[in-house]
Design a protein that fits this description.
Length: 652
């Protein structure tokens, strides 16, 4: 690959004085730590693990290699003890969660209260017969109970899996079918943009044909609420309300010692096939990684109020709030709904109400705030740190954020990670190391990345190549549920002996990481990862569609948006109604967050000689109005002219 131009002339931006003062090490110690961890990642992870609670220590720090390894083998611990119990002796009354919902509903949960709910729910699950290794599915948004239920699963060793509240019935069904849970915990609904998201009704549809589910626990969050009266459909004998499920159980229930490599949860993520894959993370490995990640990417202080705006259905929230945040005894803001309702002023209002000083979000939110205009800007004076993950951060947004939020005293820490890696492993050491506008920070201790060429040979400094990781680390997903071969095929086969991220990237001369794009068929919409194959499969399931091709189109706020091209079956008529119906088909099958910007019914696709659709050319046509680059593989050049005529003018 060519030399990367993206980081040319980008200055190093030093930590702010305030963050530097709070740093847990001196700058010299930090550079020694980075150096020693590079040479000996195992000792580094041992040191991190020793900051956590263990029932008994491990026999071997690391056994095996990528694809088949065990970290802290034989060590016994429990995530919920680390995230909740550990804080009770000193900080039982400390606020764990400031919860706020879009319609203004608010609740405050202390660590004591969280602990009581975790223990009660764990006891109730155990009484139902849920044991270590059983699956529990969760379909809720960012409500306090989701913290309790997830921590309760960790307490007894049940393997949980959260479905994003924006998923359709079909998407939830696929996940239930794959993970075969015995129990599902669902909220009756959620509020988003003033509308009810009917989670329980959607779940009822998703449950059709899922024989493994014995019980559904319903958390009533809407029924009787002051804004909306939304009766919940309950199935006799199967469904039970949360309060009835936990009735009679006390606030204490012993945690189960869990071996460090036992599975903790399954998280489904999009890839290059039409079905999402269930990544399996170990509970304790993930805890260790998330704990270290929060330590370096946020450096939480006892009085900090910290808001992670991600949804619990995406891994960012467990890493930085639900596990990593709680493991540090943090006071978290959990917000349910859209942050720009009734207008973008709402975001700033929440900051002000809780005096948030650290924020974890995605670049899309900052771009939205920037576009909304500076007239809304207020209550940001407490902000000291904004950490980000999930998608490229453009330098303009970096500078706007740095200059306008926190009175120019905020440090903008872009980080890079993946659902697979379980952590954002590139970041600044907050308060200690610099960043650059648009970079993803540098490699955190404990990780051994390398950018390589087509042959798997390391490229030079500043050269673009394929981003890989060479050594195991505790939070790396261990396998794919029900499909270990697919794990090997997807991550370990492209470059022998390495984990392949499927991202193109470069390290510059200051060690800063620059991630430029995916090299597979995954697009990133507002930080949400969407497999184009998943959308194409949804379209070709429609009886009118013969073939479909989905591409990502640049978008000033969301980074990119999906755009769908379809070819109809013989005898089908093109119409705007059909285009709308096809867009709806994606919302129904995958979820409305994946709705394409437009569905374009066309007569031909540009193809290679082997018949493969050249999606790159479709994207070029939409963006530039013409195709560029190498088109020698094109079998039917006339397709370009046809399409151009059908499309009219480009989108921008
Ligand atoms: O392409 C990279 C992009 O997001 C992908 C990971 O998506 P997901 O698994 O949903 O992320 C969960 C985060 C814990 C990556 O393969 N990505 C992530 N961070 C960045 C990024 N692209 C550019 N810059 C980033 N900072």
């Amino acid at each position: 690959m060519e030399e990367a131009a993206v980081f040319k002339n980008k200055p190093l931006v030093a930590p702010t004085a305030k963050l530097a003062q709070q740093a847990p090490l001196s700058v010299l110690e930090a550079s020694r730590l980075l150096e020693s961890a590079r040479n000996d990642p195992l000792s580094y992870w041992e040191d991190i693990a020793e900051e956590l609670f263990w029932y008994s220590g491990w026999n071997h720090t690391l056994e095996g290699e990528l694809g088949n390894f065990r970290y802290f083998a034989g060590g016994l611990s429990n995530v919920s003890v680390n995230c909740v119990d550990r804080h009770l002796s000193q900080h039982a009354n400390k606020v764990a969660i400031f919860y706020e919902r879009e319609d203004g509903l608010r609740e405050v949960w202390s660590y004591r209260q969280l602990s009581a709910e975790v223990n009660r729910f764990a006891a109730a699950m155990r009484a139902m017969g849920i044991a270590k290794g059983d699956r529990v599915a969760i379909y809720m948004s960012n409500i306090p109970e989701v913290f309790a239920v997830i921590q309760a699963c960790y307490r007894i060793g049940a393997i949980y899996s959260v479905s994003f509240a924006g998923f359709s019935a079909e998407a939830v069904h696929d996940r239930l079918l794959d993970s075969q849970p015995r129990l599902v915990v669902v909220a009756d609904g959620s509020l988003r943009r003033g509308k009810v998201v009917p989670l329980k009704e959607t779940l009822d549809q998703a449950l059709e044909g899922i024989g493994s589910v014995e019980k559904v626990v319903v958390v009533p969050r809407l029924e009787g609420s002051r804004v909306v009266d939304h009766p919940v459909p309950m199935t006799e004998g199967r469904d039970v309300f949360y309060a009835d499920f936990v009735a009679g159980f006390g606030p204490e229930f012993p945690a189960e010692p869990i071996e460090a490599n036992e599975p903790g949860f399954i998280i489904y993520t999009s890839g290059t096939t039409s079905k999402p894959k269930g990544l399996v993370h170990s509970g304790i490995g993930f805890l260790t990684g998330a704990y270290a990640n929060v330590k370096w990417a946020l450096n939480l202080q006892p009085d900090d109020v910290y808001w992670c705006t991600a949804d619990v259905g995406w891994l960012t929230f467990p890493i930085f709030a639900l596990v990593g945040g709680l493991a540090h005894g943090a006071t978290l803001v959990a917000y349910e709904g859209a942050v720009d309702i009734p207008n973008p002023g709402r975001f700033y209002e929440v900051l002000g109400r809780y005096r948030v000083n650290k924020l974890f979000t995605a670049p899309t939110l900052l771009r939205m705030l920037r576009r909304a205009g500076d007239s809304y800007l207020e209550h940001t004076q407490d902000l000291e740190l904004i950490s980000l993950v999930g998608e490229p951060l453009d330098p303009e947004t970096f500078y706007w954020t740095k200059d306008k939020l926190g009175g120019g005293q905020v440090f903008v820490n872009n980080t890079y990670g993946q659902t697979e890696t379980g952590t954002a492993w590139a970041s600044a050491l907050v308060g200690l190391t610099p960043t650059k506008p648009g970079s993803c920070g540098h490699t955190l201790p404990g990780y051994v990345p390398e950018v390589v060429d087509e042959q798997g040979l390391p490229v030079g400094v500043g050269e673009l190549g394929y981003l890989t990781l060479k050594e195991p680390f505790p939070s790396l997903a261990r396998t794919i549920w029900n499909n270990p071969e697919r794990y090997h095929q997807t991550y370990l086969s492209r470059f022998s002996g390495r984990y392949f991220t499927a991202d193109a990237a470069a390290f510059d001369e200051d060690g800063q990481l620059w991630v430029t794009s995916r090299v597979d068929d995954v697009i990133n919409v507002a930080g949400h990862r969407i497999g184009t194959m998943e959308l194409e499969a949804a379209l070709t399931n429609h009886p009118a569609v013969s073939e479909a091709a989905v591409v990502g189109l640049p978008d000033p706020i969301k980074g990119s948006v999906p755009l769908a091209f379809v070819i109809l079956r013989a005898g089908q008529q093109k119409s705007s109604e059909l285009e709308t119906e096809l867009s709806e088909q994606i919302a129904q099958t995958v979820g409305s967050y994946a709705r394409p910007q437009r569905v374009i019914i066309s007569s031909t696709f540009p193809r290679t000689r082997s018949g493969k659709i050249m999606r790159r050319l479709l994207r070029d046509l939409m963006v530039e109005g013409q195709v560029s680059g190498d088109v020698s593989a094109l079998e039917n050049p006339e397709a370009i002219e046809n399409l151009r005529a059908e499309l009219g003018s480009p989108t921008k």
